[in-house]
Amino acid sequence: MSDLVKLGKYLSLILRHKPEVIGIKLDEHGWADIDELLVGMNRQGRFINRELLDEIVKTNNKKRYQYNDDLTKIRANQGHSINVDVNLQEKVPPNTLYHGTALRYLDEIKLFGIKKMNRLYVHLSKDKETAINVGKRHGKAIILEIDTKKMLNDGHKFYYSNNGVWLCDDIDFKYVRRIFDDKK
Which residue ranges does UniProt annotate as crossing the membrane (predicted)? Predict the structure, then answer.
């Protein structure tokens, strides 16, 4: 794993879950002061400067991060386990979205639905390929096809993040239309 990828994963930890690890605080919208972030990361032995930070933001394949307008602050677009308001747009999703997970979780999902667990929202993808890549991070991957049209009709809300991830609250298993493995 490259140093840039390692720094990106650490940045994700800080901006989505544990800013206190480097002694910083996020504001109510998840923004971190860039100068404080860089000092804090370096103090923890994660050698980073503004040039490397810019490279992480620019090259992250999930477009996880964004700068504010005057480029003095940074935040993660979604995926937080800490309570922040990243100004998500409520939006009507396509009729079908996908959730990638590991096969070992399927029995639990059938009983209890798809839970946001330690995150603020359940993450959904617009395509099977993205969902399968998410699922592979957790083991043998499966894809759950979600009937978002039915969810909308039943009063559920959906949000669209700046990096193209669909978000919603817990999903009852009755909204899972089909299950695919990573071969289909």
Answer: none
